[in-house]
Amino acid sequence: MKTLKIILTLLPFVWSIGMIPFANKVHPIVLGLPFLAFWFVAGIFLAFLCLQAIYFIDSKHRQNS
Amino acid sequence: MSNETVSLLIIFLFIIGATIVGLIPGLNKKMNLEEWAVGGRNFGRWLNWFILAGEIYTAFAFLGASGWAYSRGGPTFYILGYGALAYVVGYYLLPTISPIGRKHGLMTQPDLIEHLYDSKILSLLTAIIGVAFLLPYLQLQLTGLGLIIEACSYGQLTRVPAMLIAFILVASFVYLSGLKGVASTAVLKDILLMIAVVFFGLYLPIHYFGSLGGMFEALETAKPGFLALPGGTKNFDVSWVMSTLVVTSLGFYMWPHFTTNSFSARNPDVLRHNAVYLPLYQICLLFPMLVGFAALLLLETPLKTPDMAFMTIVQKLFPGWTLGLVGGAGALACMIPAADLLLSTSMLFTRNIYSKTIGKRVDPNSLINVARIAVLGLTTIALCLAIFLPNMLVNLLLTGYSGVTQFFPMIVLGLYWKKSTKLGAYAGLIIGEVLVFTLILGKMDPLPLAGMNLNAGFVALLTNLIVFVLISLFTYTPVKAKKEVSL
């Protein structure tokens, strides 16, 4: 569980910071946005999902203990 | 009535209205800072959503993000990146800080430092640095308000008189309404500004270019590569955005006023739960950028002040009353955060600097007067900075971030790493801040290093962290550890 939490915590940083060299382009335009802007917007949703999952794990853990 | 009379009239109605609304809660009973901050948590889910989303819409997001999109292009997108990451940091950090604050009656960030390291001088140093880097943030709000007044007068009022008016408005708003005004007026401003930003952000691209994609294709044809990195700049490239995202995401909760907010949370779970949904609000920051890009294609003559992009496009394409409404909402977006910042800064000064040094024997009841004078003094300094050292809004925020991020090793390692020592904190903090000052004042931000262009705050943070860890390891004694475990 702890490993999973670490992965979920680091994933948004890898996506929004680590992957920038590969996302730095205008095309393809996705959802009307230049690719770099789309990448960051997708990163926002990813951070939301990861935090949601971590919160779920944490509250389950609290219930058990 | 002419256009400028209508738009200026609307703005002043807004400001006077907000001041009156802000005064009403204060008439019935006296509120203190804690009551105000916790009071916000009694709002229903929707009101809460607007308040949280609206906190994002300051002069920075509204004028600064559109101004950078207009002049810099691709590098602006960093603004979409850091907020979501900051909340991941906050998810772990805030629930740790909050119970310590409750247990030991802490109210400000220097209070926390004093508690962690048992050092009054380190706490004083933190307070002074905090005040110093809140000033550019304050300057940002004043400059923004000046720009709005200038645009709404259709250029009749130039920058300096416009900023003088802004200064008088902000200072009297804080004097009259205090923090009481913030919560009740924030809702009004947030709803109006959100409508304005989403409307113009979608209307301009769709009306003139058919769709968002249509606008970006047209921009890519007109200026190839402008929408990627480094866009319209020479050195704001991939390495700059990466290092800036590290600085801003780690620095977000190092702003002194956010620490105060986390102390007043009801319980750690509220903070955790909030952190989960906060990233989604960052989407709101996209819309001002869309306006900036539309302005770049639609305005024929290039703007001398890119931060005017949003106001200028509304001024050129819409009637005076529309400009007045946007300006009115925008003016509140500058004044309300400015009031919040001013009061936190003045509290930092009064509680952690004045009453710990020259005012040691002053009667606590008269401190409120010191805080009031501090408000005037700080606004004057910010006004002088805005007149004599003008800078783009985003640059001002980045300067502040570089400075406050240097608290990160001291606070985070101080909380989680048992071997942190006072000397390590001193050394890391001082070296970090000296580097920030030298690099920014020496115009070496971003710093070219090994083929990369690194954010000055990032270089300083890395050095700070290494020094902190090394000195802590050298000076750590297990005896002292026992005392610190009892947090």
TrEMBL record, chain A:
Pfam families: DUF3311. The chain crosses the membrane at residues 35-57. Keywords: Membrane, Transmembrane, Transmembrane helix. This is Solute:sodium symporter small subunit. It comes from Pelosinus propionicus DSM 13327.
From TrEMBL, chain B:
GO terms for biological process: carboxylic acid transport. GO terms for molecular function: transmembrane transporter activity. It is a multi-pass membrane protein. It comes from the Bacteria. GO terms for cellular component: plasma membrane. It is found in: Membrane. InterPro entries: Na/Glc_symporter_sf (IPR038377), Na/solute_symporter (IPR001734), Na/solute_symporter_CS (IPR018212), Sodium:Solute_Symporter (IPR050277). Pfam families: SSF. Keywords: Cell membrane, Membrane, Transmembrane, Transmembrane helix, Transport. The chain crosses the membrane at residues 6-25, 46-70, 76-94, 121-140, 160-179, 191-210, 238-255, 276-298, 318-349, 370-390, 396-416, 423-442, 454-476. CDD domains: SLC5sbd (cd10322). Belongs to the sodium:solute symporter (SSF) (TC 2.A.21) family. This is Solute:Na+ symporter, SSS family. It comes from Pelosinus propionicus DSM 13327.
